[in-house]
Amino acid sequence: MGLVKLLSAVLSVRRAEKLDAQQLMELQGLRFRKLLKYAYEHSKFYRAFYLDYGIKSADIEEIGLEDLPIIDKSIMMENYDDLVTDEALKREQIESFIETAADSRAWYKGRYKVVHTSGSSGAIGLFVYGADEWEISKALGLRATGFNHPVYRRKRIVFIAATDGLFASVSSFYNLQSFLVKLLPISISSPIEKIREQINRFKPDVITGYASGLNLLAQEQLAGNIDIAPSEAFCTGDPLTASYRKLIVDAFGVNPVNMYGSSETMTMAAECSEQHQMHLYHDWVATQVVTDDGTVSRTGKLVVTNLYNFTQPLIRYQMNDVIEMEDSPCACGSSMPLIKSIAGRTEEFLWFERSSGGRDFIHPIVLAEFFVPGLEKLQFSQTSSNALLMKAVLGGDQEQVVKAIHRRMSEILSEKGLQDDVRFEVQVVGAIDNDAKTGKFQLIKPLVRA
Predict the structure, then answer these.
(1) Which of 120, 128, 297, 391 has the fewest beta carbons under 10 Å from its own?
(2) pLDDT tens-digit map of 28-85
(3) Nearest in space to 261 (alpha carbons), one of 232, 240, 230
C-alpha cells in the first residue's frame, strides 16, 4: 500500500505543476481552509490561542491566512502536547524515542515519523508526521530531485550529511525506494580518510547531501584523492554558495540542483533544472515573508504553513531564515513563486588539531542537530585549537541531562577520531544572549585565529 499511496501523492504534485498562478492559489486556499478547520477542532492549543485573539469558530470559514497570529518554535514547544492533534503524542515520550531510536528509518508507535532540529536558533524543535503525510513529503522530495516517478531506474546514489539521527535531510534520503536505487549514506562526521575510501569504492552516479559536503567532495576530487564521475548533484541542508557551486561544476562537470527544506515542512522548494531558479512549492506549503513588525513584504523572515501535516499543524509558523522573493516569473514556465535569496545557517566548521598531525572538522549541522532530552538551548564556542565550551540551558533533572550531553558529544568526537585530541566543557546557564553586534543568536562561535 505504501507504493500505491506514494504514486497517488506523486501524481498529485505533478498535476499541480501544470496549474497557472490563479489555479495554484485556489488550490492552496482550499487546503489551507481544510487544515485550519481541522486544527481549530482537534488542537487544544490552536482553539485557545485563536480565541485569545477573538477568532471564533464561525470565523474559521472566512478568515484569511494573513489575519491569523504568528507562532514560532518557542510557542510550539511550550504548548507541544496541546498543539498536536493526537493525544497519544507527548513531548517527553517523543524525546525519549529520539534518544533511543536505532536509525533514521524508525517509526514512532509504528505510525509516525519524527524529525528534530535546533538549527540556527539553538532551540530544540520536535516535528511529527503521520504515515499519509509522510507520503506527501516523499512526493515533494521526488519532485525536487526530478525523480517524478517512484519506479526510477536503478542508480547508485550517495548522501553525505549527518546520518545517525532523526534529521529531516537523512530521513528524506531514506524516502527513496531502496529496492529501486542503491543507496550509500556517508556520515559527514567520519574521518576524511574513511570518506575518501567509501566514495571511491561506491562510484556514485548521483551525489547528494549538504552543500558543504558536496563542496568537500569537489575539493577531494580536484586534489586527486577521489575519482568519481557523477551525472547529477543535489544540495540541501545548508546554503549552496556561488563558490561551492563553481567548485562542484569544476570538479564533476555537473551543475548542482539546490533544494530547500526544513524539519517543519521537509522539502518546500527547489531549483528548476532549466534555469536553476528556486521555486517555492505553494501547492503544499503556504509561505509569507514578513518584517519584524509582522508586515508582509518581499524581504524578511519566512513564515510557513504546512498544508499537509494535520498531526502537528504549523499555521503561520515563523522561521529564522531571511528570504527575498523574486518578482519576475521564471523562464521555465512554472507558476510556483521564486525565491531570490535565502539567508539561512551561516555557522562555520570547527577545525581541531590532531596530535598525530593534520586537522579535521566537526560539521556545523552535526552541532545544529545536537539533541538530548531535557536540553532546551545550546551554544558551542571553540576556545582553543583543541578545546570546546558548550553553554546549555536545561530543563528537568540537570545532572542527568549534563551526563547525556557528555555522552552525545563524546560520540561525535569518537566518530571523527578526535576523542583523544579535543576536550570539552559543559556550562549550565540560565539563558544564552544573542550576539551584541548582530542581535542574532550565534549557535557556533569558531576560534578567532591570529
Answers:
(1) 297
(2) 999 999 999 999 999 999 999 999 999 999 999 999 999 999 999 999 999 999 999 9
(3) 240
| 405, 393 Cβ separation under 8 angstroms | no
Q: Output the nine-digit C-alpha cell for 141.
A: 522530495
Name residue 77's amino acid: M
DSSP 225-254: S-----SEEEEESS---HHHHHHHHHHHS-
Distance between CA atoms of residues 313 and 133, nearest Å: 11
- Burial environment of residue 342 by CB neighbours within 10 A (0 to 12, 13 to 18, 19 or more): middle
Q: What is the DSSP letter of 69?
A: P
Give the gyration radius of the chain's Cα atoms: 22
Map grid coordinates 576523542 to a residue.
Answer: 419
Burial 349-363 (b: 16+ CB within 10 A, else e): ebebebeeeeebbbb
What does the alpha-carbon distance between residue 282 and residue 286 come to, in Å, rounded to a whole number? 5
User: Reduced to 3 states, what is the DSSP secondary structure of residue 259?
Assistant: strand
Average pLDDT over residues 138-155: 68
pLDDT for the residue numbered 143:
85
Phi, psi of 61 (to 5 degrees): -70, -25
Q: According to the model, what pLDDT value does residue 244 have?
A: 87
Task: Check residue 60 and report its DSSP letter.
Answer: G
| Residues sharing a CB contact under 8 Å with residue 432, sequence separation 6 or more, in sequence order | 122, 377, 378, 379, 391, 393, 441
The 10s digit of each residue's pLDDT in 88-111 is 999 999 999 988 876 777 899 999
pLDDT of residue 212: 85
CA distance 80 to 77: 5
Q: Domains in the chain and their CATH numbers?
A: 1-344 (3.40.50.12780), 350-445 (3.30.300.30)
Task: Using DSSP bridges, classify how beta strands 387-394 and 317-326 pair: parallel, antiparallel or unpaired.
Answer: unpaired
Q: Where are the alpha helices (DSSP H) in 62-210?
A: 73-78, 80-83, 91-100, 131-145, 168-173, 192-202
* Cβ atoms of 173 and 138 closer than 8 Å: no
Angle 242-252/211-222 helices, nearest 10 degrees? Answer: 40
pTM (2 d.p.): 0.79
Q: How far apart are CA 6 and CA 89, in angstroms?
A: 25
The pLDDT score that the predictor gives to residue 200 is: 97
* Least confident segment among 157-166, 242-251, 319-328, 382-391: 157-166
Degrees, nearest 5: CA angle 163-169-170: 35
All three cell numbers of 77: 514547544
